[in-house]
């Protein structure tokens, strides 16, 4: 059973986040992982990055690897597309020339673009690409204290690393999806993100039963925003438990400050979210004497 000293840690973290929020020059919250293991989507053969709407088309497929090839390029790299894999369409402009008669009856060449498309496959959809060099990835060592918190959560949701470029909790499936650990710049950011999603999962009806996660809300409304603040405070508290808070606190403060429509320069919402975040952290840490459902 935790004593007053343990609860003071939560208060210290809350106070530091509020202090950081008030500080000028607070860096904007940033996503802690890369969009793909090496940045924006690119062609694996030409090494050129895709542009415009193609970035959205490819990143929405949620592959960890950011490299793409056409069917023929997979063969050029010594491999092939796996059986049953579906392609993704990308667009390009083809410049077409046509001879047309002008108003004076003279022939002139007109140039105009036509939108075309072709199909590509992510390299994860291929096999035997022997001529393709593997990406250089960051191998993070686990933090034992953080792993103990993840493993010790009672009635945990399922957790996978199939999120690609997204980290999210699904209340309907009661599951957490994360980007690959190697796509995070720092291992502390990986655990902070995982703790954030675990914080969301405590709102499930089988745990703390918070209406803000159980009810369907629209992005940006007050309930949604409150739930985001609760999850981030939970993450900050769990980071403090593991000793990695100094590496994640500024990011948490910037993230919480980004919900200006809820905060409205009023610290009451911050304190409320901190209280709910504490309950979420206590649930994950299995501190039943400190947990209430009100």
Care to describe what's here?
A hairpin with a 4-residue loop joins strand 8 (168-170) and strand 9 (175-177). This protein has helices at residues 4-22, 53-59, 71-76, 144-152, 187-201, 211-214, 222-242, 249-257, 260-263, 267-284; strands at 42-43, 67-69, 80-81, 88-101, 107-122, 126-127, 158-160, 168-170, 175-177. The chain has two domains: 4-34 and 138-290, no CATH class; 42-127, no CATH class. The protein is of the alpha/beta class and 294 residues long. The strands form three sheets. A four-stranded mixed beta sheet has the order 1-2-5-4. A three-stranded mixed beta sheet has the order 7-9-8, covered by helices on one side. The model is unreliable at 1-6 and 290-294 (pLDDT under 50). 38% of the residues lie in helices and 16% in strands.
Brief write-up:
The model is unreliable at 1-6 and 290-294 (pLDDT under 50).
List the defining traits of the structure above.
294 residues; alpha/beta; four-stranded mixed sheet; three-stranded mixed sheet; 10 helices; 16% strand; disordered N terminus; disordered C terminus
List strands and helices in order, with pairings.
Elements: H1 4-22, E1 42-43, H2 53-59, E2 67-69, H3 71-76, E3 80-81, E4 88-101, E5 107-122, E6 126-127, H4 144-152, E7 158-160, E8 168-170, E9 175-177, H5 187-201, H6 211-214, H7 222-242, H8 249-257, H9 260-263, H10 267-284
Parallel strand pairs: 1-2, 7-9
Antiparallel strand pairs: 2-5, 3-6, 4-5, 8-9
